[in-house]
Write a structure and sequence with these properties.
GO terms for molecular function: hydrolase activity, acting on carbon-nitrogen (but not peptide) bonds. It holds the Pfam family Amidohydro_1. Keywords: Hydrolase. It comes from Talaromyces atroroseus. InterPro entries: Amidohydro-rel (IPR006680), Metal-dep_hydrolase_composite (IPR011059), Metal_Hydrolase (IPR032466), MTA/SAH_deaminase (IPR050287). This protein is α/β, with parallel strands linked by helices and about 450 residues long. The protein folds into two domains: about 120 residues, Urease, subunit C, domain 1, CATH 2.30.40.10; about 280 residues, Metal-dependent hydrolases (TIM Barrel). Helices cover about 40% and strands about 20% of the residues. It is built from 17 helices and 19 strands. Strands 1, 2, 3, 4, 5, 16, 17, 18 and 19 form a nine-stranded mixed beta sheet that branches. A hairpin with a 2-residue loop joins strand 2 and strand 3. The relative contact order is 0.17.
Amino acid sequence: MSRIVIYNASILTLDEDDNFYYPGSVEIENDRIVKIYSGNPTDEVLSDPSITLLDGTDKLIMPGLVDLHFHTSVAKGFGDELPLKEYLEEVWYPSVRALNAERAYTAAMHSYWTAVRSGTTTVNDMYRFVGSLADAASRIGIRAVLSNEVALEEHGLDAIADNIASFHQHNNRDSGRIKVWMGHEWMCTSNLELMSQVGEAMKTLGTGLHIHLSESQQEVDEIRAKYGKTPVEIAYESGCLGPSTVAAHCVHLTENDIALLAKTGTSVSYDPGSNAKLGNGIAQLQVLNKAGVNVGMGIDAFECENSPDMFELMKFGSLIQRALHQDASLGKPYDILRMATLNGAMALGINAGVIGIGKKADLIVIDLKKNQMFTPLLKDRQSRKKMLESHLVFGCNGSAVQHSIIDGKVVMKDYQVLAVDEETLRTQMDSLFEVLSQDMKTLRIDTCKGDK
């Protein structure tokens, strides 16, 4: 049995009762949180050499961040000046067509390393060569839900058979820390038959679905002109909506679309950075929340956001809603933090997202002295809690994350991901893109009229 004890820390549980401890301690056995309490452990615990002790003085313990819409990335910072259609045709699709198993592994290692470094403990990753992604997730120690980019054959991505094979080969790896869902790229690279086949495969396998829906107005207009329905309506009629589906983006929704998402229990990934950078608009967050839709948060591909940092995303996601609606009461830190943790965990069916007894031990430890991000802080417990929430959403970035524990294992300690030689990985990624960028030039297929 492995045991970890973090003591003398501030503890932001984000649980139903909104419990906050200062100072307090968390005890972990194997993959579960077993104790949360005020004060410090007994002398017997503190002197037990079999226990991994982490001093929480001037630290904050909180649930790890759940990136609900993620793509492994190879081309961050390449082609950022291109308009959307040209970007997809010249960068995104050629880059994923140029992959092989070895390249996908290196890209996933780098993507998961950067995610863990900035506080993410779970990714919902749609990409290619799922076996390579699973190998990388296994080595890094991150929790991962993986899916293929399923599209029609002429688009040079993945087929349903690829995704079904991924499920049988890799679902529930590492004692369930790695899951495989079905993936569906989007309706502009699909048709009604393929969408229905994806829905049927999801049900047959008893797994979930990761899908792009209604990301841009161009997409919605194109699909409506072709089929007389919105992408959400097509997904509903194809059996692709439900409590095991994560629909990414959902920016351009009709009233009926929102009603269908709510009725089916479909979760939505709010991806404000990607949607803004690509000029796709701002999701109707207030309307989705009012309708009772579970909404988490996602970075999307690093190409679309240029950063893996979900702390930065939380800030932007709150501020853009306030600016849009000219209402400073929106995007409260209390709500935004839960979107980035508990809501994402619920969407993926993971018993995590809060610091609670019996929950999976997926948590991060933040240095409250790092670069003055959390200064000032009051000592009064309730004032301290409120200020911490505010600092986390509006004043923090991922560089403050000192330790990361995933599935009860210390994956990052003192800012270093334990499974990775950072300099080696950096040079591998540079070398990979040097070669891949040349291959991309020959892999353009000018068939997609919208965004991904």
